[in-house]
Amino acid sequence: MLSKKTKYGIKALTYLARQENKNPVSIATISESENISLKFLESILLTLRKNGLLGSKKGKGGGYYLIKEPNQIQMTAVMRILEGPISMVPCVSLNFYEKCDDCPEENTCAVHKLMIQLRDSSLKIFRNSSLADLCNC
């Protein structure tokens, strides 16, 4: 299930991508427009800034803005920053792999095989989707 953090992060990113003038937008403006708690949004935007998707400007006329063009922001990056691993179980994760404690042999595990298919399908969608695709920018 998609966390609220990721859902709100995507909503905030699409809001910023739709801004024609590309000027910084205040957290309060995004919060009100997208119906997201101000405190929660502040934390999400800070995470996105620390991971190189957003820039920020302090003071009058300040706020957050996209550093890259929307077509350069892949959903794989957004998902990994906000949600963590894309795979549902750690034994099939490409970036966060961990062996399952209860599984003696991954190659014969039915769950493992199914989760690889799910991971690959999800990755295909995320890799082929950019922020521009979500907001028709």
TL;DR of this structure?
By secondary structure, this protein is mostly helical. Helices cover 48% and strands 6% of the residues.
Produce the secondary structure layout.
Blueprint: H1 4-17, H2 27-34, H3 38-50, E1 54-57, E2 63-66, H4 75-82, H5 110-127, H6 131-135
Antiparallel strand pairs: 1-2
- Tell me the name of the CATH homologous superfamily of the largest domain: Winged helix-like DNA-binding domain superfamily/Winged helix DNA-binding domain
Query: For the report, how would you describe the main beta sheet?
Result: 2 strands, antiparallel
Structural class comes to mainly alpha
The CATH class of the largest domain is identified as Mainly Alpha
Ranges where pLDDT stays below 50 over 5 or more residues in a row are none
Global morphology: elongated
DSSP strand tally:
2
CATH topology category name of the largest domain: Arc Repressor Mutant, subunit A
Approximately what portion of the residues adopt beta-strand conformation?
Answer: 5-15%
How much is the average pLDDT? Answer: 92
* N-to-C SSE string, H for helix and E for strand: HHHEEHHH
Helix count? 6
Number of domains: 2
